[in-house]
Amino acid sequence: MASMKKIAIFDPTDRIESQKGLLIKEMFERIQGVETEIFAIKYNHFPVKDNDLTLDLIDSDLEANGENSTIGQGHLPTVESIFEYLTKEFDGLVIGGNNDHEVDDDEQEYFKVYYPLINKLLSIDYPLLGICWGAQSLMRAIEGDKRLTKMTMVGKEPQIGILKFSIIKENPLFDEIANEFFSTSYHMVCFILDKSAKIICSRDGYWDNQAFQYKNKRCFGLQFHPEHTLKSSNKLFEKFKNMSDEEKREFVNAKLIFDNESPDEDVGTKIATNFIRIAGNSSFESIPTLI
């Protein structure tokens, strides 16, 4: 990792540099020699050359909590222009969390370029790492809506908290990570895998699909949140506790569960380190396939 590595972060939330995007940025920038840049793709802020960028970012009033401002909707750049710039300027792509899994493609303009872009990047084995919605969106891009479902539809109650996870397949993404570790969980939707992707991490007795590698490509998905620290996790859980009854409707039967007092924060750093190493391995096919 002697040369500088640049990682693009797709943040599909409603704010400029949301907490979700910033936490991923912090996770990667703990590693010496790594730079990141966040793109607010929900507002068509994709990585393209300046002279191709038709997006007009409009700062509005700060949110009541003083976190970040929202931005105005711009025009869609082409898949080709995003692909060209992304592959030229960045060594890999990380996709963070969002709540657009149940929205029709027609209702989210950025889906029109996001899903074709993911498949175009997959075709050249470009390094991809999806976290929570990011992982779900990778499977949706590859296999369509049939690979996403609510936890309640598979007979599982959503679990929010700090949970214990188990690595069930040796994989370069989990190098130097203990076979069992604790991380933050916060999701109501899950991905369903077929033989094209292999489960590499699970939660015993609950839901196996907690992490995958797609075929033998440099494409990985994590359902849990390794980017979260104890402080950010507690903020997330407090927000859940303080939700109105109406807001909690989508969290049907969700339970707060704590297998440990805090997440293993070094797991996030190790996953980021391993992803950077994988991204720099042009002969990744030499690593034994999981299929």
Helices and strands, with pairings:
Blueprint: E1 5-10, H1 19-29, E2 34-39, H2 79-89, E3 92-95, H3 111-123, E4 128-131, H4 133-143, E5 148-150, E6 159-167, E7 180-185, E8 189-191, E9 197-203, E10 207-214, E11 219-222, H5 230-241, E12 255-258, H6 265-279
Parallel strand pairs: 1-2, 1-3, 3-4, 4-11, 6-12
Antiparallel strand pairs: 5-8, 6-7, 6-9, 9-10, 10-11
Question: Could you explain the architecture of this structure?
Answer:
This protein has helices spanning 19-29, 79-89, 111-123, 133-143, 230-241, 265-279, and strands at 5-10, 34-39, 92-95, 128-131, 148-150, 159-167, 180-185, 189-191, 197-203, 207-214, 219-222, 255-258. It is globular. Strands 1, 2, 3, 4, 6, 7, 9, 10, 11 and 12 form a ten-stranded mixed β-sheet that branches. It has a two-stranded antiparallel sheet with strand order 5-8. The protein has one domain: Rossmann fold (3-Layer(aba) Sandwich), CATH 3.40.50.880. Helices cover 25% and strands 22% of the residues. The chain starts with a strand and ends in a 12-residue tail after the last helix. Strand 1 (5-10), helix 1 (19-29) and strand 2 form a beta-alpha-beta unit. It contains six helices and twelve strands. By secondary structure, the chain is of the alpha/beta class.
Characterize this entry briefly:
InterPro entries: ChyE-like, Class_I_gatase-like, GATASE. The protein is of the alpha/beta class and 291 residues long.
Helix content: 25-40%
**CATH second-level architecture:** 3-Layer(aba) Sandwich
Tell me the name of the CATH class: Alpha Beta
Order of helices and strands: EHEHEHEHEEEEEEEHEH
For the terminal residues, how far apart are their CA atoms? 28 Å
Give a count of the beta strands, DSSP E runs of length 2 or more: 12
Q: Please describe the biggest sheet, giving its number of strands, its sense, and whether it closes into a barrel.
A: 10 strands, mixed
Q: Helix tally? A: 6
Q: Mean pLDDT, rounded to whole units? A: 80
The CATH topology turns out to be: Rossmann fold
CATH superfamily, by name, is: Class I glutamine amidotransferase (GATase) domain
Backbone shape: globular
